[in-house]
Specification:
By secondary structure, this protein is of the alpha+beta class. It has two helices and nine strands.
């Protein structure tokens, strides 16, 4: 009878040990993930260690700062102030915000704004020659006569459809303004 008891105890002990091994293997599977790196043709060869350091960024802030914008109507496409190019490649949306200050006391209220036109030849030609804004991204801020010289827009979230946009600025008030454009690009 003692022998049966010893055999039974050994069977139970090995069962407990086996269960412990299975649970520790499951814990290791959750912590470690298998990653396969496939080398493609010679242009995309991967060699050495593949690693990602720090957090992967999913957003960035771009600024167009302190652009002087004299009075010019948005329909006068040939006279709009050029603010350069914003590169949005790799991002799916943009939150645009505009702020600035007037260069004197405003007598006639107006609007300061930006029109982002895709940096594509046919789209730019339609805008410059015909005043036709195809696929624009826009944000504007009201400028009112009164005590404050500062103005700001409400942030606008827009879908990005092109990798690069030309920045065109306008101002419908009676004084020159200084404008800042903030483009928070996200995925």
């Amino acid at each position: 009878m003692q022998r049966k008891f010893v055999v039974l105890a050994l069977i139970l002990l090995s069962g407990v040990l086996l269960l412990g091994q299975i649970s520790s293997v499951k814990g290791q599977e959750e912590e470690m993930k298998r990653v396969i790196v496939t080398n493609f043709p010679e242009l995309q060869q991967v060699a050495g260690t593949v690693s990602v350091e720090g957090p992967v960024r999913h957003s960035t802030l771009q600024r167009v700062k302190e652009i002087l914008v004299p009075p010019v109507e948005p329909k006068e496409t040939g006279r709009l102030i050029d603010g350069g190019v914003l590169t949005m490649d790799g991002f799916t949306s943009a939150v645009l915000s505009l702020n600035g200050q007037t260069k004197g006391k405003i007598l006639r209220s107006g609007t300061a704004g930006v029109i982002l036109i895709p940096d594509e030849e046919t789209v730019a030609r339609a805008f410059e020659e015909e005043g036709l804004a195809q696929f624009p991204l826009e944000v504007s801020a009201s400028i009112s006569s009164g005590a404050s010289r500062s103005f700001a827009s409400t942030p606008v979230r827009l879908i990005v459809a092109f990798p690069r946009y030309r920045v065109r600025l306008y101002n419908t008030s009676d004084k020159t303004v200084t404008v800042n454009l903030f483009a928070y690009l996200t995925n």
